[in-house]
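Page 42, continued from yesterday. The earlier attempt failed because a stray header line got pasted into the input along with the sequence. Redoing it now with the clean sequence only.
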Amino acid sequence: MKRIRFVPNAPAEVRAIDQPTAMQILTALHRYAQTGEGKVKPLSGEFEGLLRLRVGNHRVIFDETEDTITVHRVRDRKDAYR
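This time it went through. Structure tokens are written below.
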């Protein structure tokens, strides 16, 4: 299983989301770290080199190495790429 790290502002973004949705996001992230399964897509343009995990209307923007996932953003889809 890959280790999950958050950049300093990401935990506050998760706390700002309603609790049931935040739990869905964290569960999907944990599942991706364990199995590599999830709605993940590489990004391009300004966010090239990053990946996004889609969980309902929210997007988790992250990068990964062989043993670590680093979460950069957790936002609603309308604000995720701004």
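Notes: The chain has a mean pLDDT of 96.
Reminder to self: strip header lines before submitting.
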